[in-house]
Amino acid sequence: MYNKTIAELAKSLRSGEFSSVDLTLAFLDRIKQHHSLNTYITVTEEQALQSAKAADLRLATGKAELLTGIPMAQKDIFCTEGIKTSCGSKMLDNFIAPYNATVVDKFNSAGAVMLGKLNMDEFAMGSSNETSYYGAVKNPWDTNTVPGGSSGGSAAAVAARLAACATGTDTGGSIRQPAALCGITGLKPTYGRVSRYGMIAYASSLDQGGPMTRNAEDAAIMLQTMAGFDNKDSTSVDLPVPDYRAGLSNSLEGLKIGLPKEFFGEGLNSDVAATLEAAINEYRKLGATVTEVSMPSLKLAIPAYYVIAPAECSANLSRFDGVRFGYRCENPADLTDLYTRSRGEGFGKEVKRRILMGTYALSAGYYDAYYIKAQKIRRLISEDFKKALSEVDVMMGPVTPSTAFGIGEKIDNPIEMYLSDIYTIAINLAGVPAMSVPAGFSEGKPVGLQIIGNYFAEDKLLNIAHQYQQVTDWHTQIPKGFE
Amino acid sequence: MSLTVSEVKDCAHLARLGIEERDVGSYAKDLSGMLDLMTQMNDLDTDGVEPMAHPMDQVQRLRADVVTEQVDREKFQAIAPQVEAGLYLVPKVIE
Fold first, then answer.
1. CA distance A149 to chain B (A)
2. For A389-440, how does the pLDDT look when each residue is reduced to its tens digit (9 = 90+)?
3. Topology adopted by domain A6-253
């Protein structure tokens, strides 16, 4: 039963094939069985069974929603009232959130069953899930490789069938990159589409939550629940939420696809490139036309991102001071010692690196040269997107330059790790939505196809992904040992 | 471009971030690598370009000045490292 999609599970729960309690027990059992993947930081067994019982009652009344009774899991960046919310950090290892994130409230109202909280890179800073205080997550396709990051626990859990679906967050690729490396479907919505309230902040002008699922239809179901205006998030966008499933079956006849030539140049693994070419050919068969587009400022996305994101992170993470919540050092000598040691002992190396970088970029004398310069480049990148997306309906390209790399392979070389984000971060700078869709394998490891759309065109992206999944079966493949 | 050990220490001080003496060198090396990456930004002429702070160029939304939330001091202080009589405790600041 754990191999079914949300849509299939919803049917089975209604036909009485099995109950939500049966289903929840099956997932809890699998989580224990595959504990070594290290996907969960906290398993909320008791609460899950309570929610499952409540869901079964609700299903019996006929007032259930599609997600009612569906066992899912939250990335441990979303605050969950009364439940540890660690953000993958020693700093918050003792943090029991006093309130729910809006996203969590929404899943609760839909009657979804939360199995637990998923592992992630510390404060969402990382591309391999190796910066987590709780240790690396293993990729179910090859347990010697990383699942990607920062939503690595989410991607690995969905791929290994340890949850029917999961939430993720994406600041520079943290939904799409792990989705690609684990062979699942991930969607980063338009900035402002999903509430950030109660989602622990890394870089506030880039962070966006989204669904991580088996297929596009499930992503549509999840996004339906996640999206929408929230008064509690000052950058939430007040626009109506369309019915994301309504357009899934639309024909792609006449769809104009743009391939940014900068996405297919040097640095892209040739096997990955060939896999993507085959995927794009499928779209040609579905009636799409393909043209080349150009994004001239794209090459500066990485430098601009690694100024802007650390700058925002250094400000956001100043709240962790050892006074009101979170980690506090032993026997502080004075207030400065309390701040300095609590932060020094509570944060890991990658977080410290980014706080230092951000502090430098924002300090007197460097502000204009780095921060303002990066914001100007952000404008140019965003204009590149607007121009390209006025010529074509969507753009397609790789998510990552290569497939999953080995655990330990890049962790000591931060710059090399940053460079692997080349195809994802520009999307966050512009704020447009993008998806990663399973498009094949290279030496047994999943390859993701990235589909990039215009602002608030999530319905279009889901339609395009869904149509591809009707004629391919990459998204239904299961890693060996997890059938 | 490279960042000196003393510049790293200055930033750590500004951020009130403790770093081990033995790690300062490796931070200096990593941050210098990041700065090298960032100097690539100078290749692009951005004169006259308006800085973009936010993807939607949004402004802060205003709301009516009404009470929407009550502070639940007990609940919030239940997770604090040290409290007494409803106050957060820190080491003595004024002698």
1. 20
2. 999 999 999 999 999 999 999 999 999 899 989 999 999 999 999 999 999 9
3. Amidase signature (AS) enzymes (3.90.1300)
Quick check: is A75 catalytic? yes
Interface probe for A, chosen from B5, B16, B50, B93 (most Cβ of A below 10 Å), is: B16
Alpha-carbon distances, residue A339 vs A203, A295, A324, B10, B24 (angstroms): 22, 44, 11, 15, 19
DSSP code for A203: S
With beta carbons less than 8 A apart as the criterion, state whether A133 and A90 touch.
Answer: yes
Tally Cβ neighbours within 10 Å of residue B4: 11
Which secondary structure element, helix H or strand E, spans residue A50, and what is its range? helix A45-61
Chain B hits for A305, CB-CB cut-off 8 Å, are none
Domain ranges of chain B: 5-43
Domain positions in chain A: 6-253
Q: Is the ipTM of this complex over 0.90?
A: yes
Residues of B in contact with A229 (CB under 8 A): none
pLDDT tens readout for residues A223-279? 999 999 999 999 999 999 999 999 999 999 999 999 999 999 889 999 999 999 999
